[in-house]
Amino acid sequence: QVQLVESGGDLVQPGGSLRLSCAASGIIFSIYHMGWYRQAPGKERELVAQITRRGGTNYSDSVKGRFTISRDNAKNTVALEMNSLKPEDTAVYYCNAINDGVPSYRFWGQGTQVTVSS
User: DSSP per residue over 52-110, as a string?
Assistant: First the structure.
């Protein structure tokens, strides 16, 4: 059974920092590309950051320079370090795993709430 379990969401003041973590089980973690998505109330889910199985990274323009994605293949975890948080970063953050195979499989975590407010 595949599980992606996010943690680290919290209420933080503008300008603050948070570190999200996602622990994966039931998959061969090292062959999956990992990503963080977010969904704010009334909005569609959007990509925040991706890290390929080889460690290449990609960020949305809205978080570039403030967020950093990383992975630890030995621990089957992916993290999102978030700095200089803004109220518009408020959302539920979801961990995602996808592979290159045919067929391709995509898995989601249950989400963790991040609220940026004073």
Answer: -TTS-EEE-TTTTTTEEEEEETTTTEEEEEE-S--GGG-EEEEEEEE-SSSS--EEE--
